[in-house]
Design a protein that fits this description.
Number of strands: 9
Number of helices: 1
Order of helices and strands: HEEEEEEEEE
CATH class: Mainly Beta
CATH architecture: Sandwich
Number of domains: 1
Strand order of the largest sheet: 1-4-8-6
Distance between the termini: 79 Å
CATH topology: Immunoglobulin-like
Length: 164
């Protein structure tokens, strides 16, 4: 009986060895290599600012811009004076853009109540190669009867486009 058990164990071990050799003879290792590359370019930028309208007696100064900011220095001399600045944004990249937010905040706390700002919104969608414009209008409140003590007011605008 003991001999029979030993023979069965030896036969099972031989079967396992044969199966292992057979598996390795028929197993194949496949190797896959790949590379991914992003070829799109993100390039939404400010390309210009100009005084579109300047009322008599006002001075639009020399507006300046970089790819990410536009600055103007309006001089208003009397109630009713108005200057309209037109700002151009271009999508020079290869990816379409969508307007996420456009927020313009005048400094009401520290600024002159005599100066008012009005703004328009840039385009909601800015496809590759497209441009859009929006305006910032600076107005000396025509209802002011006295020269205000505080004579300045700044505005900060943040326009955020995201990948469409």
């Amino acid at each position: 009986m003991k001999n029979t058990k030993n023979i069965i164990i030896i036969v099972l071990l031989i079967v396992i060895v044969v199966m292992a050799v057979g598996y390795s003879a028929f197993a194949t290792q496949l190797k896959i290599n790949g590379t991914a590359q992003i070829i799109g370019e993100w390039n939404v930028k400010i390309t210009g600012i100009k005084a579109q309208f300047v009322s008599e007696g006002a001075n639009a100064g020399t507006p300046e811009f970089t790819v990410t900011s536009a600055t103007f220095d309006a001089k208003l001399s009397k109630p009713g004076d108005k200057i309209v600045y037109e700002i151009t944004i271009e999508n020079a990249g290869t990816m379409d853009a969508s307007l996420q937010s456009a927020k313009f905040t005048p400094d009401e706390e520290n600024g002159s109540p005599a100066i008012k700002y009005e703004t328009t919104q840039p385009a909601q969608t800015l496809n590759s190669g497209d441009t859009t414009t929006f305006t910032v209008t600076v107005i000396y409140d025509e209802n002011m009867e006295e020269v205000p003590e505080i004579k300045e007011k700044t505005i900060t605008g943040i326009i955020e486009y995201v990948q469409k």
